[in-house]
Input
Amino acid sequence: MELLGRFNDEMTHAFDEAFGTKWAEIEDILAIAAIVVDRPVTTRRLSELSGLDRRAVSRMLSRLRAEGLVTTRASQADGRAVEVILTARGEQRAQALRTTMTAFFGRSTDIAREISLGMLPAHAPRGPAASADPIELLRRVCEAGVALVRVMPDTATEGRLAARQRAALVQIATQGLVRPNDLAPSLGVSRAGVAYIVDQLCAKGFVDRRRDALPEDRRAVVLEATAEGLHAVRAVMDGIAQQRETLAELFADVALWRPSAAASETPPVSAGPGRPAA
Output
């Protein structure tokens, strides 16, 4: 579970670096990957693929439009549907994402192999290196992540526990007594950001602050997962156990992954509003 968490955190950081987001939710990553790969894609399809409801998709698209990355138009196939199209600036961002994810998966083969072997030794990576578009591989990983998030109790999902909060909770639950400042490097936030995340976890009943827990420093404040917090993390662990064969195969593919020549090429620019698709 610790390795899965580290892989997810590093993947999220790589995505944020390329696409200009800040600790993107896994559902948002799925939706953006669909916009990049499925050309064109409707808002209805984005909701189906990502698990985001229509309002969440609308909010995400509003942000992307404000940044000049996407535009929308009535579908040429179905006038009732709305298609999402990358702008020229969005195409540049998509290519940056493809380049960054190529580098990320290229340097993640060792941890992916370790995860695969830990899940199911029989699925140790063998054979020739797999070749695929890095955005498609990103989507496969995110789909597996969404499936794990969905096994968490209702109190930890439905928007009540954001990505950084989930990452912090897993770290606290798996490592035991954790000082707040120990969370900053893995979460990629300032001390003030950590304090906010911890405040949210405490307010939701997943984490407690404790004093007098460290014999060497009785004044130190440490964090400890509550029974409800541990329950949420155990639910994810149960989900991992239930999906271990699928996860083992997925991470075996990640361990073998190599970029194809096509993966490094810039895809054709989508038709803009009022222009026919190529």
